[in-house]
Amino acid sequence: MYVSPGSLGNVFAYLTGLDTATGCLTGFREWLLPRFEDGNNLAWPGVVQMLLKSESVNDKNATARLGELLDEFYAFTREDGGSRRCLIRVYLRYHAWLLNRSWYGPDCPGYISPYDGVPFPQSDQLPSDGG
Questions:
Q1: Domain that holds residue 82
Q2: For 58-104, what is each residue's pLDDT tens digit?
Q3: CA–CA separation, 53 and 59 (whole Å)
Q4: How far is residue 131's CA from residue 113's CA, in Å, rounded to a whole number?
């Protein structure tokens, strides 16, 4: 990927467009968020900026750190041969993170209760690539 000038904002813009066209960053935000106490109101570039700030990453190294995060995310989502199980794990972990936030509850739009009568699947119950 070549972005000129290679500012973090330009890389964010390029990747956001790429994601809009391909869905290549599906789950990236939800994969990042459990590292923090808050940030659920942010799109993925805002979450990345929050992470860079928490790690004291300077502007010069910011795009390199973003590349490392993307490498980690893609390595995680390609476990088990890139099955849907990995993406399901991302969203289950994100939901567990939500349930542990003091502000998340039945009054929140889109609230999903762990007690809606639909048990969350255990790891051996997650769909395989064919399912």
A1: 8-125
A2: 888 999 999 999 999 999 988 867 778 888 889 988 988 898 888 88
A3: 10
A4: 25
Residue 90 lies in a domain: yes
Q: State both tokens at 14.
A: 């390029």
Residue 2 placed within a domain: no
Considering the domain boundaries, does residue 3 fall inside one? no
Read off the pTM.
0.81
SS3 string, 52-94, reads HHHCCCCHHHHHHHHHHHHHHHHHHHCHHHHCHHHHHHHHHHH
The CA distances from residue 17 to 13, 14, 59, 81, 131, in Å, are 6, 5, 22, 26, 30
Domain count within the chain: 1
Report DSSP state, residue 121.
P
DSSP 102: T
More confident residue, 130 or 78: 78
Q: Which two tokens stand for residue 79?
A: 């476990």
Tokens, residue 61: 């190294």
